[in-house]
Amino acid sequence: MNLFYAPDILTTPLLPEEESLHCVKVLRHKTGDIIHLIDGRGSMYEAEIVAAHPKRAEVRVISVTAGYNAHRYSLHMAVAPTKNIDRFEWFVEKATEIGLDELTPIVCRYSERRTLKLERIEKILLSASKQSLHAKVPRLNPPADFSDFVRGVRADGRFLAHCYPGEKQYLLRACASVADAVVMVGPEGDFSEEEVRLALSSGFVGVSLGESRLRTETAGIVAAHLVAVASELRLE
């Protein structure tokens, strides 16, 4: 099943130009075909094409499914963008496929990348959501300074994945009873010791992602997966 993105479908029964082109020209849908749309906020729509125009495909909504393919937890990830932007974009795509609700790029003391093309990241979030049949597209926040983020974010569970020695919980166990989680992953050089102390004093829990030393983007994927697994285990 292919999903098309139409954020204003209930007020404007048209596919955006890019989606219309893909639907009519690439996939060769025609008038009378039944297609499926998402609004990016969690609802999936079954609709009939009533005018197969390659720039303004018009549709008629047949049915709506709220909360389509939704996961039973909320995950907000705050991750320091990698120097090699391809690695960060790979993380964004795969974390979205696993299950992601909100993403905040963070700027840390050892960050090697401090700027992002947010429009490109938004396109990756949308594409990955459609590919994985998620009706909700993760929210992308502007880049935030580390200290501002840790002082301002709120969630039932706040977790900081870092590599320093000391008492840490395995993330799978730490979030076992948490349905609303924030997980922070640092840059290639890890968080600074001062940043770790600030996060812990602000209510974050230090966590481990396993015995291996992971790249930033790999750590982000592992963290997203562990939160998803913890949610599944709670349902057993």
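[next item in queue]
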Amino acid sequence: MTNYHKVKLLEFPERGDERGHLVIVEGMLDIPFEIKRVFYIYGSDSDIVRGQHANRKSQFVLINVAGTSKVKVKDGLGNEAVFSLDRPHTGIYLPSMVWKDMYDFSEDSVLLCLSSEHYDASEYIRDYQKFVDIMKKEL
């Protein structure tokens, strides 16, 4: 069984009044893990593809806090889905062992990434065919 079926769009509490908006995202409440790392991607042209990997351990939540982007997820077994991140109070939950491509960045895109793990290069699978082979062995 793959984790692909666990990928889901999340909607976060949004508060606001005449002063503006406030979006709240809390680990273990709004997202299903403790946040151990935060990073963001900006300045990527619309024709650039970021990500292009799967992670053995890390789970992520991606939120476009400004602008827009798309995220394509694959399970390595032929299933894929595309999510549009176009509202700052929504995000996508990505469990471990799903392939992710982020692309179609608007000029003003700032993609916030929340991770369940500290960075460890050894847990990244950066070759799609290797990912496919691993997933087929899991069946």
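[queue empty]
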